[in-house]
TrEMBL record:
Gene3D superfamilies: 3.90.550.50. Its EC number is 2.4.1.-. It comes from the Eukaryota. It catalyses: a beta-D-galactosyl-(1->4)-N-acetyl-beta-D-glucosaminyl derivative + UDP-N-acetyl-alpha-D-glucosamine = an N-acetyl-beta-D-glucosaminyl-(1->3)-beta-D-galactosyl-(1->4)-N-acetyl-beta-D-glucosaminyl derivative + UDP + H(+). This is Hexosyltransferase. GO terms for molecular function: N-acetyllactosaminide beta-1,3-N-acetylglucosaminyltransferase activity. Belongs to the glycosyltransferase 31 family.
Length: 400
């Protein structure tokens, strides 16, 4: 007796469910088409979620794509059952990354026309293991608030001493603990450097602030100096709050740096990376320039990066940079390389007007008041550094 009624009730319920489902679909469609608080339309991708990158013909790009494959779990999982990997993934070079990579001359057409130090960089660009000749394992014993990290060369004794006697003086400054280390490699007679190993040993013993590794200290190896320091930092100084890394010809207003850091919020301090940021740049193709990079070595544009004269970042970010640096192939320009590592972390450097890595106008160079509100100026001689430091620490003149 209740059969027809049951059938009607079933049909009614099905229609009700269908109407609810249609309403939900319309609501979702409307939500995606016109997001709340935004007047722009959201474009939903119609292609595949992941598709392989087009293989570059430039050597650095190809090697980086190989690293991307190694460290990309999605790609690894997708291809893990495929024993027939593409040739560009199987051509990995020597098993020992510190042996010369003789694939390079075959893959770079004009390799033999490149400067010798560029050739050497390309042959050994996969090597990151070098003996440490001078270490300072106790320099961060007190977990400094600010660690100055200065890239230097062995003969630059006068620059290092000027820094020690001015803005890089270790101890307590501005009520915060400050420590300083100088990063050095090995200088060779073939690079027209005098032999000063004995003098360096005496300096290191006297000041306890020199870190040295046994690699050839050239312009293209500044990136290697960067990653070796990050490794040392992760092992010997992981609790330093902040790091200011720069060249040995910069002037730094330590008081301004500490005041700035004291005023940071916890969120901003975590991923801090500030400096004189360069955006929308790319490699120079003129072989006469210091920063020349041929197209068959690297093709593309650079991510935003802070000029290598000096930049400031958090100790926590330094640890992340060390970890991610293993996923980024060494690049012969150190500040660009740091920008690449930041990009890999999904970050970008922040521009700060107090960082003047390209100097200041000539008419302001000898004005003591000019330096009161700046954080870093490049470049200055040792004599200028000492004189400017006196201007900073002397209350005269009145710079209101």
């Amino acid at each position: 007796a209740h059969g027809p009624w049951n059938r009607k009730r079933t049909v009614f319920c099905m229609l009700l469910i269908l109407n609810v489902f249609v309403c939900l679909l319309m609501n979702l469609s409307w939500t995606f088409k016109w997001p709340k608080n935004e007047g722009r339309k959201v474009i939903v991708p119609t292609g595949r979620f992941w598709r392989p990158q087009v293989l570059s013909t430039s050597f650095w790009n190809k090697e980086q794509q190989r690293l991307d494959f190694i460290y990309n779990p999605l790609v690894n999982w997708t291809l893990s059952g495929n024993s027939e990997l593409p040739d560009w993934l199987r051509d990995t070079g020597p098993l020992d990354p510190c042996k010369p990579d003789y694939r390079v001359p075959r893959q770079i057409v004009d390799y033999n026309t490149l400067p010798q130090r560029f050739q050497d960089f390309l042959l050994y660009m996969r090597c990151r293991t070098y003996p440490m000749l001078i270490n300072q394992p106790h320099v961060c014993h007190q977990s400094p608030f600010l660690l100055f990290v200065i890239k230097s060369l062995i003969p630059h004794f006068d620059r290092r001493q000027a820094i020690r006697e001015s803005w890089g003086r270790a101890g307590v400054l501005g009520n915060q603990t400050v420590a300083t280390v100088f990063l050095l490699g090995s200088t060779l007679p073939m690079d027209h450097f005098p032999q000063m190993i004995d003098m360096l040993g005496q300096e290191a013993e006297l000041h306890n602030d020199v870190l040295q590794w046994d690699y050839r200290d050239t312009f293209f190896n500044l990136t290697l100096k960067e990653v070796l320091f990050l490794e040392w930092f992760s092992q010997k100084c992981p609790h330093a709050r902040y790091v200011l890394q720069g060249d040995d010809d910069v002037f730094i207003n330590t008081f301004q740096i500490i005041d700035y850091l004291n005023g940071l919020s916890g969120i901003k301090a975590k991923d801090l990376f500030v400096g004189d940021v360069i955006s929308h740049a790319g490699p120079h193709r003129d072989h006469k320039l210091k920063y020349f990079i041929p197209k068959n070595v690297f093709d593309g544009v650079y991510p935003p990066y802070a000029g290598g004269g000096g930049y400031l970042f958090s100790g926590q970010l330094a640890l992340h940079l060390y970890n991610v640096s293993r996923q980024v192939l060494l690049y012969p320009i150190d500040d660009v390389y740091m920008g690449m590592c930041l990009r890999k972390l999904g970050l970008a450097p922040e521009k700060h007007s107090g960082f003047r890595t390209f100097g200041i106008e000539e008419k302001y160079r000898n004005n003591p008041c000019t330096y009161r509100n700046l954080m870093l100026v490049h470049s200055r001689t040792p004599q200028e550094i000492l004189r400017i430091w006196q201007w900073i620490t002397n209350p005269e003149p009145d710079c209101q």
